[in-house]
């Protein structure tokens, strides 16, 4: 695989990184097996976050005897609750990852100006102290809003920026990549498959071979996924014109208002599983009723009592970096689930 250098840090890694956000879906034993295979195939960069349930623990356990050349990145959202909360979560990350030092540690979901203000109000100084003490090699920042991230990078305080970039979300091409390059900031790409909604996964990954985007970290939760992704990055075939068109057509059909399944909007006080709502809505809304749509609606039927409790409070919209209109989609799904009960496809 192609080896890249991460900004001005001098750290080198394979272009394909391992996104560990889906490790909570598998057992410790399986996680160990997957990560061992990733290491064998040349993956050296592992990205996780304190918010990803037991992902840090699984990574820490699986990488306990890995070579020192392995690079680990993690981050915390606790800066939104002040420096003490952030300190506690940082110390927890060290314990869970079983490391004396984390290569990149940073601020998770710095999306809006108030988030950046929270980072600058103490947590950034705290991480600088940890850096002086040797517990963090480099300070990172992640977010979904290129404008906020550019403003953060202009301050020169961050060695790495992580953000979504894919065939649907190409906004970082309009300034954010340039600012990162000017400042010598490494870039790490989250959601290369747009949160898993792009069906042509191989094409979606090959999209990156026309750019120098940094380390690409698709979430992986099986040996098969690791092997397939490594194969794509070893071949490193750029998209042909017709493949590019195929991918762009898929992106156009999805539009911008689709859920990336990041769960930042959770929890909902009414117990609504919001990413699941969007998954079912996307597969069923506006589609003719057939066996597949009926099957998907069946899966959603058990959510109906909770969906009917939606108060349209709008808290989920405030927390969503993409302003997805969840209350509207909940309403639509309630109507769909009720009317589907009359369909002959519905058992
Ligand atoms: S608007 Fe509905 S789905 Fe969103 S947080 Fe409020 S109750 Fe939950
Ligand atoms: S509605 Fe928004 S915040 Fe919630 S999972 Fe989807 S993209 Fe993420």
Structure description:
It contains 15 helices and ten strands. The longest helix is centred in the first third of the chain and has 15 residues, at 83-97. It is 43% helix and 12% strand. Strand 9 (186-190), helix 8 and strand 10 (215-216) form a beta-alpha-beta unit. It has 347 residues and is an alpha/beta fold. The strands form two sheets. Strands 3-4-5-6-7-8-9-10 form an eight-stranded parallel β-sheet, covered by helices on one side. A two-stranded antiparallel ribbon has the order 1-2. It is globular and about 65 Å long. Helix 11 (274-284) crosses helix 15 (326-340). It folds into two domains: 3-249, NADP-dependent oxidoreductase domain (TIM Barrel); 274-340, no CATH class. It has helices at residues 28-40, 55-62, 83-97, 113-120, 123-132, 146-154, 176-183, 201-206, 223-235, 241-254, 274-284, 291-301, 304-307, 315-319, 326-340; strands at residues 3-5, 12-14, 18-19, 45-47, 71-76, 102-107, 136-142, 160-164, 186-190, 215-216. The chain binds iron/sulfur cluster (2 copies). The site of one iron/sulfur cluster has 15 residues, from helix 11.
């Amino acid at each position: 695989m192609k080896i890249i250098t991460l900004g001005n840090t001098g750290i080198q890694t394979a272009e394909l990184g391992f996104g560990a956000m889906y490790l909570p879906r598998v057992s410790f034993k399986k996680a160990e097996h997957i990560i061992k295979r990733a290491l064998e195939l040349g993956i050296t960069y592992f990205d996780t976050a304190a918010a990803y349930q037991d992902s840090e623990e699984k990574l820490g356990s699986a990488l306990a005897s890995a070579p020192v050349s392995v690079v680990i990145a993690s981050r915390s959202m606790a800066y939104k609750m002040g420096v003490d909360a952030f300190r506690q979560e940082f110390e927890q990350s060290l314990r869970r990852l079983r490391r004396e030092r984390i290569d990149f540690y940073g601020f998770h979901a710095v999306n809006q100006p108030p988030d950046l203000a929270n980072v600058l109000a103490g947590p950034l100084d705290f991480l600088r102290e940890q850096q002086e003490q040797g517990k963090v090699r480099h300070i990172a920042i992640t977010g979904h809003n290129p404008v906020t991230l550019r403003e953060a990078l202009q301050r020169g305080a961050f060695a790495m920026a992580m953000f979504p970039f894919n065939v649907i979300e190409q906004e970082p091409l309009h300034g954010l990549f340039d600012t990162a390059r000017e400042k010598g900031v490494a870039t790490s790409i989250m959601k290369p498959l747009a949160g898993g909604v792009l069906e042509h996964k191989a094409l979606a990954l090959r999209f990156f071979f026309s750019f120098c985007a940094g380390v690409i970290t698709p979430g992986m939760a099986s040996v098969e996924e690791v092997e397939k992704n490594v194969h794509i990055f070893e071949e490193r075939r750029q998209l042909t014109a017709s493949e590019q068109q195929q991918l762009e057509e898929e992106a156009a059909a999805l539009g911008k208002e689709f859920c990336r399944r990041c769960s930042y909007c959770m929890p909902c006080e009414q117990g609504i599983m919001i990413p699941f709502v969007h998954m079912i809505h996307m597969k069923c809304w506006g589609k003719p009723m057939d066996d597949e749509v009926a099957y998907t609606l069946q899966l959603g039927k058990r959510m109906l009592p909770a969906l009917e409790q939606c108060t349209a409070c709008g808290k989920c919209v405030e927390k969503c970096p993409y302003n997805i209109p969840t209350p509207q989609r909940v309403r639509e799904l309630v109507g769909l689930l009720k009317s589907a009960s009359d369909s002959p496809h519905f058992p």
